[in-house]
Amino acid sequence: MSTDDRHPTAAPVPLRERRRTAAVQEIVDAAERHIAAHGPAALSLRAVARGLGMTVQALYHYFPNRDALVTALITKAYGDLSDALQATADSVAGDPSVPRLIAVAEAYRGWGIAHPERFQLLYGTPLRYYAAPAEGPTTQAVRRMGAIFQRELFAGFTPAQLAAADVPSLSAPYREHLERLPVHAQGDLPPAAVALFLSAWGHVHGLVVLEVFGHTAFLGDHQAEIFRSSVRMMREDLHRRIPAA
Question: Which of 42, 120, 138, 177 is the S-S candidate for 124 at Cβ 3.0 to 4.6 Å?
Answer without folding.
Answer: 120
